[in-house]
Amino acid sequence: MKAKYLTLVLLGAALAAPACENKAERERKDVEKAARNVDEKKTEAAKDVGKAEEKLGEKEAKAERTAFVNMANARLGKVDAMLSSARDDVRRVPDDKRKDLDARLETIDKNRHHASKELDRANDVTAADWPGFQANVLREIQTLESDIVNLGDTIKSQKTT
Questions:
Q1: For the residues 48-54, what does the mean pLDDT come to?
Q2: Architecture of the structural domain at 2-160
Q3: Would the N or C end of the chain have less CB density within 10 A of its end CB?
Q4: How many Cβ atoms sit within 10 Å of the Cβ of residue 125?
């Protein structure tokens, strides 16, 4: 009986050993799978953070563009007012002295139109070209302002002579 009992115990132990090994293997695989899932979740979270940062950057860039366009439009409005005043002043200059002034007004009008067209393309400019675009538009507006001031000085001198 003892031998039978001992045989059964040994047989049970022999059968239980692979079951314990299988259970340990399953647990190890479950841990590895959980670790992969955690890594995947971290990767997805990092991608989501990257997308959110990108969207925020796009919103900031759009806000910057909008602010620049609004500022440039305001300056072009000022140029329009100065140009209107210059036209009125040119009309008061005697006809014999007006021809050159009319030609300068026409040139300034063309440049004003060009600056406005250039500003209209603001949304089509790439981020890499944006700084150069801003500089060009500002330079054109400053040139317009300067040309109108110079025209005004010329008008004043024409009136006094």
A1: 80
A2: Up-down Bundle (1.20)
A3: N
A4: 16
Q: Compute the distance between CA of residue 74 and CA of residue 150 in angstroms, rounded to an integer.
A: 21
Closest CA to 104 of 60, 55, 153, 65: 153
> Is-contact 136 117, C-beta < 8 A?
no
| Gyration radius from the chain CA atoms | 40
pLDDT-derived band at 140, boundaries 50, 70, 90:
very high
Mind giving me the DSSP string for 58-125?
HHHHHHHHHHHHHHHHHHHHHHHHHHHHHHHHHHTS-HHHHHHHHHHHHHHHHHHHHHHHHHHGGGGS
Q: What is the pLDDT of residue 3?
A: 63
Other C-beta atoms closer than 10 Å to the C-beta of 118 total 16
82-107 average pLDDT score: 89
Contact 108, 90 (CB under 8 A): no
